[in-house]
Amino acid sequence: MLILERLIKSKTRFLPLILVLLFAVVTVYFGHVFRLVLASGNYQIFVNWLIFGMTLIFTIQGIFTLLWMLYAWENPLDVENHRSPKDYASPTLSFTALVPARHEQTVIEDTITAIARIDYPQGFKETLVICRADDQKTIENVQRIIK
C-alpha cells in the first residue's frame, strides 16, 4: 500500500499511461498464449487461461479505477477544475432525427414525444419518420401526433 500512496501523492500524470501500457502488454501476452493453447487442441487449458486472463484484466481495471477514485478523494479542488462546464454556448448547428418505423403504431407516439423533449431549440431540430406506404396504422398515428 505504501507504493500506492506514493504514486497517488506524487501526482504523476504518467500513471494512467503506465496502466494502459500494462493492460496492452498483458492483452498481447494472453492473446499469444491463447493462440498456442488453441493450436495444441487442449481446450480445458484454454478455458483455465481465459478465466485467469479475464480475472487479471478486471483486477488491473479495478486498480486503475481505485487509483482514480483515491486521487479524486485526495485532490477535490483539482477534480473540480476539470469538470464539464455548467454554461454552454448557444447551439448553432441543427440536426435531423431519422426514425425508422415498421409496424410501430403502439410505440411511435412515445418515440416522437421523447425526441421532441430533447433540450435543444425547436428551430434547430427536425424529426423524420421513415415508414413504408403499406404500414397505414403507423402512418395514421404519426399524422395524428404531428397535428
Number of domains: 2
Mean pLDDT: 81
- Helix content class: 55-70%
Unreliable segments of 5+ consecutive residues: none
**Number of separate strands:** 2
User: In terms of structural class, how would the helical and strand content be classed?
Assistant: mainly alpha
Oligomer: single chain
Terminal CA distance reads 65 Å
Strand content: 5-15%
Describe this structure as you would to a colleague.
- With 147 residues, this protein is mainly alpha-helical.
- It has two domains: 2-81; 95-146, no CATH class.
- Helices cover 63% and strands 8% of the residues.
- It contains six helices and two strands.
- It has helices spanning 2-9, 15-40, 43-74, 76-81, 108-116, 136-146; strands at 95-100, 125-130.
- Helix 5 (108-116) links the parallel strand 1 and strand 2 (125-130).
- The longest helix is centred in the middle third of the chain and has 32 residues, at 43-74.
- It is flat.
